[in-house]
Amino acid sequence: MLLTFKLKHGRDFSSELAKARRVAEFALQSGSQSSKDVKGIGLPSAIANQVLRKYARNKTIKVVRHVQPTVPGQGVKHDRDERELYISCLKLRLDVSFLPPFEKVNQIELDQEFAHVTVTINEPPLMDVEHWVGIDLNSTGHIAVVANPSTGKVQKYGKEAPHIQKKYSKMRRHLYIEGHPRVAKKRIRQKEKHKTKDLNHKISREMVNNAAQQACGIKMERLSDIRKTARQSRSFRPSLHSWSFYQLQTMIEYKAKLLGVPVAYVDPAYTSQQCSRCGRSGTRNGKDFTCSCGHVDHADANASFNIALRPSLEESDGRSHQDRDWCKGRIDAPQEATS
Ligand SMILES: [Zn+2]
Q1: 325 alpha carbon to ligand 1 midpoint, in Å?
Q2: For residue 186, how far is its CA from the centre of ligand 1 (angstroms)?
Q3: Are residue 115 and residue 188 in the same domain, yes or no?
Q4: 304: CA distance to ligand 1 center in Å?
Q5: In terms of domains, do 68 and 204 share one?
Q6: Model-wide pTM > 0.85
Q7: Ligand 1 centroid from CA 50, angstroms
Q8: Count of helix runs (H) and strand runs (E) in the chain
Q9: Are 146 and 266 contained in the same domain?
């Protein structure tokens, strides 16, 4: 698996960035791929070669915009004892002690602030799991609700998310009313993105660790149709940004891969309307779910049980989820007090 990590490099590379731009412009005009031709510009040849290759060959690039100097893996020394990378042509050291163990460095892309380090990681073999937890995203007042049908346990994550969103949309509205320039609005959006990303990292880490501890796989809804399907019925409350859910899913997926926890996706249709105990259609009223079979549950918990019990999209092979034996493995346990 290839993963890219963003590390602050703490250096001023504006001169290298400007040189890389000049090399790119030259490559675009001349079509040359020889680093000899751009020696005068003074960009280290390992980096110049990458830029030349990209811009001389590519027929679709018409204008040079953001050139990010890229150092190929061969130009990076990896000190495993010190857990440090060294780019000799730039005399740049990068601390990689908090990265998961990796096989090799593929490349490092540089911008003003960050080094984007792409590494190859050996994935552990997938765990052989008997049970699955279901993760319901965008639930009422939380980022995610996780249910484990084999134990009946329900856990809620990220109750601070709606507050974050409310806070920032309020700030944006104020700026709008006060006629402030776009820059301010942009800055708020960036702050919000940053905060949400931090939270998503924290939550995905906890969820994946918990699933691994319980020796469970993770099931989630395939979110591509999020607006068309299950979520429409919940549109009475402000929906969180869909980008943040894709981000969270991606984080869950790669963190799970690193631990060998299997991840599967299920059909999102009616996960919030179906009864997780009998499979029939129940009634959802705000936070409450009730079914004619007598099952009463928190609506989001019910939805996450459904997700956990659904066959994965690969398994179901396009068949309707209603053909399936729903209540298989569903245990009712006293639910924990929610945090
Ligand atoms: Zn029921």
Answers
A1: 13
A2: 47
A3: no
A4: 15
A5: no
A6: no
A7: 60
A8: 7, 15
A9: yes
